Amino acid sequence: MHWTRAWIGLGALCLISLTLPAAAQPAGSPVANHGALSVKNGQIVDQHGDSFVMRGMSLFWSQWAPQYYTGETIDWLAKDWQVDVVRAAIAAEGNDGARQHFDREFDKASRVIDAAVANGLYVIVDWHAHHAFPDEAEKFLTAIARKYGHLPNLIYETWNEPLRDGVDWSRDVKPYHLQVIGAIRAIDPDNLVIAGSPSWSQDVDVAANDPLPFSNAAYTLHYYAGTHKQGLRDKADAALGKGLALLVTEFGTVDSTGDGPLDRAESERWWDWAERNCIGWMAWSIGDRDESSASLKPGTAVADWSENDLTESGKLLRQKLRSAAERKAACNGPSASIR
Fold first, then answer.
1. Within the chain, which residues score under 70 in pLDDT?
2. Record keywords: Nucleotide-binding included (predicted)?
3. What phi and psi values does residue 119 have, to the nearest 5 degrees?
């Protein structure tokens, strides 16, 4: 079982220590089968030490598609799309996100986490920002850690996409992660943490030259197939060669605007690359925005989607997820190699 130690203040008098057991996971679910995740020899592995590739979907920005931050949506993704993981993109940009409305956005994250646990899924709580807000990120993610850090389902993504211009890994982004991840680790020493890098989380090769000092830390790689091609895969290969563990917490089947035509050929090249390297992925996005990266057509209900409710990207992603679940994912299990 996965345990952590939580400290709860009793007035101004004392602190008591509580040991919280992990919630029971549904039999046969991803978390029941694989348990707490960690990083070993540059790969994400499960409780048995075997390579584990999780595949799933990211929700859209939480302030703009709040209707999908519900148990019904997560239940449907587990049942029909057969995801292993869902990602809650908790908005931290602009004037209508978690920085201004902490309780509202915390409740959204909690609903997604509770539903993921009920289905035995992994769940990424993503501080969805382009600019640095370390104090606000620390406040939000440590609150998540206090409430849910005892659960093996939980994964933290501490900075979605640092910008490119004027942003340096060692000067700007690494110190941010040292603060935020350090605060999380003081509460939850075990669960997987995913770190972003400059250039919208594409400079993983730069991060590999000056990695974070934490255990169970991996690095996110973001791409949009219509824009980012072999050059970005080369950067990712360089990071892998230096021992970095990677997880694609956001990608699109279209171009980097989130719109435009679906690039099936390049999407398949990315999926082939991820499979060869035993790297998991989450697609952007579960939302009904009128753009081609959205999986749902405008006005689609929160669950029970038919084929007619899905965009071309949504249809392709659902098919990929169901196919991976049916073939039991070649990278998962003791036969998978560990770099």
1. 1-22, 328-330, 332-339
2. no
3. -100, 0
